[in-house]
Amino acid sequence: MFRRFFFCCVISCITVSGLIAQSDYYRQELSITTENDVYLLQNTDRYYSNGALIHFRFVPEKSTFLGIRHKEETKRIIEIELSQKFYTPKDLTLTDIADFDRPYAGWLYTGLTVSDFPKPNQLLSYGAELGVIGDISGADGFQTWYHRNFGFPEPQGWGYQIRNELVFNLKGSYSYQFPLLKNSIDLIATSSAMLGTGFINAMQQADIRFGKLQSLDESAFKNAIIGRRRNGFDRHAYFFLGYGAQWVGHNVTIQGSLWNDNSPHTEDIYTSVQRFRVGWAASSVNTTFKMTYNWLSEEVKGAKVHSYVGFELMIRLRSRNL
After folding, report:
1. 275 burial level (CB within 10 Å; 0-12, 13-18, 19+)
2. Would you state the torsion angle of the CA atoms of residues 70, 172, 316, 14, taken in this order, to the nearest 10 degrees?
3. Which residue from 21, 154, 218, 237 has the highest number of Cβ atoms inside 10 Å of its Cβ?
4. Which superfamily, per CATH, for 2-318?
5. At residue 12, does pLDDT exceed 50?
């Protein structure tokens, strides 16, 4: 059902884009992302097994949104997210819980993020997530159906998944762009943190981009092509290479609830996790396409490193009243 909704969103967005009158600016953007280790073509399906993410972004007409005011000259983008993710052990055919090297977990949530660009090379982002973990997320039903109908081994351990719980997280980040070679090479440093009942962590990330580049407030790298500051569009493409060091205080998909231990299977986490990514992005007038390879060091004690690929398509909508 979630995948059907995903497909309908793409079709609706393309249809609306063609009907709305032309204008000089884009105000809205729909982003569709799929993440999976099966895209590596290595016959693996483990740990962060699958992610389906929908983001809708828009530039508010007024300088005040939800009671939060910003300067008129500061670009602001509001983002609404609906996502489903699920996690499994390395071997889905195992039936003995003692052999699992990671808990089964489903995570379905919605989020709201405010992104402010006080200067072209700076981004301050903050927001919240609200969702559910457990069988109420629908992850077990979807993966079982998918594997059964497309010839993959059927997962045997969803009965031992992390139990149902309501999860609320606050998040924030700050990014700064350092030009290394004008419009061709730059370094983007990002500090981020999350605090909530599901996830507690902090991370420092550094990404090097090279290609045809834009400032942060005009680039798809931080989902910022839409907005009033666009005085025309310049097609661009770039590669990026990034490394992040993350401190982890709690991860509900591995450790279970912050308040109780009623889940039948949990594991211990590594409090230090390294993340590496490499990717490519290209933007035309109406769309952006991103492809990213992600590598993670061990998150769970006794488990192994993990990697997966993400594909993202952004479709921008034009506005009549700008």
Report:
1. middle
2. -130
3. 218
4. Outer membrane protein (2.40.128.140)
5. no
The DSSP output letter for 63 is S
Nearest to 217 by CA among 208, 205, 230: 230
Query: Is the Cα torsion angle 208, 213, 218, 220 positive or negative in sign?
Result: negative
Give me 207's structure tokens: 């990404």
Nearest by Cα to 58 from 284, 236, 311, 228: 228
Q: Could you report the per-residue pLDDT of 176-213, keeping only the tens digit for each?
A: 999 999 989 999 999 999 999 999 999 999 999 999 99
Place of tokens 């660009």: 117
Q: How many residues does the chain have?
A: 322
Per-residue tokens: 94: 């195992």
Give, as one character, the DSSP assignment of residue 99: G
Integer Cα distance of 320 and 220 in angstroms: 22
Establish how many alpha carbons lie within 13 A of residue 45's alpha carbon, considering only the half-sphere containing its beta carbon. Answer: 17
Can you tell me the mean pLDDT for 290-308? Answer: 96
In the chain, the amino acid numbered 138 is G
Amino acid (1-letter code) at residue 133: I
pLDDT tens-digit series, residues 253-274 = 999 999 999 999 999 999 999 9
- How far is it, in rounded angstroms, from Cα 238 to Cα 159? 44
Tokens 């509900």 locate to 252
- Helices and strands in the chain, H and E counts: 3, 14
Task: Write out the two tokens for 297.
Answer: 């060091």
Query: For the chain, which residues make up each domain, given as ranges?
Result: 2-318
Three-state DSSP class for residue 290: strand
